[in-house]
């Protein structure tokens, strides 16, 4: 028991000694701090973003140089932009040496805020931050400057374009114009359009409005050229439709380019062991189609000798009673008889193409809808 007491006394004296030494040699770590000398400033305090100005600068943030730090370090600047508090923000951007401002366009700011959860057509406060970080002999706190701007975003509005002319089955009056489908990708707004629909023999061009004269787009020097006209005129050169049916149009205002042509069929499928597809309907094997060459449908297949096939088109909902593309003659040899006929549902006789020994193997089957022909090319 005495031994234990002696050990306790030694331990207590040691603790007292350590405590007195700690009070005498109290160590405090102080990190160098610096007040904001950069004074981050926006070019506007409030702004309403506009689709019409989407490529123009919305806000420019500028700042003064940061103070030199005592750690002999090189200062690197970072910029950050987001919602107040910056917990919801874009990743900070490291800036090149000597840069003292950061600008953002109407479109980019609109898109950024939407990506951060701000609805189109609403107002929100944003916060910007410039960070001056110095890496040198020892760590120092970075110098930081912040500012805020009130921003109202815009809703992306459609930029309509209409097909008009005598080729329009609804009538040649501008008020009957057919609206094309606008393709919006990033900043590409009001430039690219596509459309698939029925046209009759006649001519066509495009107008920006069916209710007032806002200009037109007509034929250029060739079938793929496009011309912008400030007003609608009867003298506009129009595109020609020589065969009524289903057409495809792709139009690019920026490139002044148009691809248009006879498509003929909305869909073409294959069925039959002759092209390696089970005799089941509806068929799940569809021909590929490229809008850049609208009249052409292709299918990669493995043909089988002494087997036949036919091609459902447009609508398979009636099963075996649906419309089929067929040869003109029974058991037609594609290499000798390449004509195609589009037969209605329930057509009789049940004409099919027959694959020969020479045609068996890996092939590409092609339908030319404009000329109503079929071809088979061995790989």
If you had to describe this structure to a student in words, what would you say it looks like?
The protein is mostly beta strands. The chain has 3 domains: 41-152, Sandwich (Immunoglobulin-like); 162-262, Sandwich (Immunoglobulin-like), CATH 2.60.40; 273-378, Immunoglobulin-like, CATH 2.60.40. The chain is built from 2 helices and 27 strands. The chain has helices at residues 2-24, 106-115, and strands at 41-42, 46-48, 57-62, 74-82, 93-94, 101-105, 123-135, 143-152, 162-164, 178-179, 181-185, 188-199, 202-207, 216-219, 226-229, 239-241, 245-252, 257-262, 288-289, 296-303, 308-309, 311-312, 324-327, 340-343, 353-354, 361-368, 373-378. Strands 9, 10, 13, 14, 15 and 16 form a 6-stranded antiparallel β-sheet that branches. A 5-stranded mixed β-sheet has the order 2-8-7-4-5, with no helix packed on it. Mean pLDDT is 91; it is low at 1-12 and 16-25. Residues 31-130 form the SusE outer membrane protein domain. Keywords: Signal. Residues 1-21 form the signal peptide. InterPro entries: SusE (IPR025970).
């Amino acid at each position: 028991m005495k031994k234990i007491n002696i050990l306790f006394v030694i331990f207590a004296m040691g603790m007292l000694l350590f405590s007195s030494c700690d009070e005498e040699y109290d160590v405090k770590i102080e990190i160098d701090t610096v007040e904001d000398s950069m004074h981050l400033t926006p070019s506007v305090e409030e702004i309403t973003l506009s689709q019409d100005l989407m490529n123009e600068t919305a806000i420019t943030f500028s700042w003064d140089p940061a103070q030199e730090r005592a750690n002999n370090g090189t200062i690197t600047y970072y910029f950050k932009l987001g919602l107040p508090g910056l917990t919801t923000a874009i990743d900070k951007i490291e800036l090149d040496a000597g840069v003292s401002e950061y600008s953002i366009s109407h479109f980019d700011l609109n898109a950024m805020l939407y990506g951060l959860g701000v609805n189109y057509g609403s107002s929100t406060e944003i916060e910007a931050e410039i960070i001056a970080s110095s890496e040198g002999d020892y760590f120092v706190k970075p110098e930081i400057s912040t500012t805020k701007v009130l921003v109202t975003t815009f809703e992306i509005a459609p930029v309509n374009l209409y097909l008009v002319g005598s080729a329009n089955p609804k009538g040649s009056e501008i008020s009957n114009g057919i609206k094309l489908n606008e393709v919006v990708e990033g900043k590409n707004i009001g430039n690219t359009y596509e459309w698939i629909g029925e046209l009759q023999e006649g001519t066509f061009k495009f107008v920006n409005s069916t209710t007032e004269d806002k200009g037109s787009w007509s034929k250029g020097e060739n079938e793929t050229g496009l011309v912008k006209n400030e007003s609608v005129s009867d003298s506009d050169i129009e595109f020609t439709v020589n065969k009524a049916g289903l057409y495809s149009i792709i139009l690019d205002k920026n490139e002044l380019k148009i691809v248009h042509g006879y498509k003929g069929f909305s869909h073409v499928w294959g069925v039959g062991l002759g092209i390696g597809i089970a005799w089941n309907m509806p068929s799940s094997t569809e021909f590929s189609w490229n809008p850049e060459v609208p009249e052409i449908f292709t299918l990669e297949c493995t043909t089988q000798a002494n087997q036949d096939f036919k091609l459902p088109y447009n609508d398979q909902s009636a099963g075996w009673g649906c419309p089929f593309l067929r040869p003109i003659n029974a058991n037609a040899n594609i290499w000798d008889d390449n004509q195609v006929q589009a037969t209605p549902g329930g057509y009789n006789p049940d004409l099919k193409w027959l694959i020969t020994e020479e045609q068996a193997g890996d092939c590409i089957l092609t339908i030319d809808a404009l000329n109503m022909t079929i071809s088979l090319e061995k790989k």
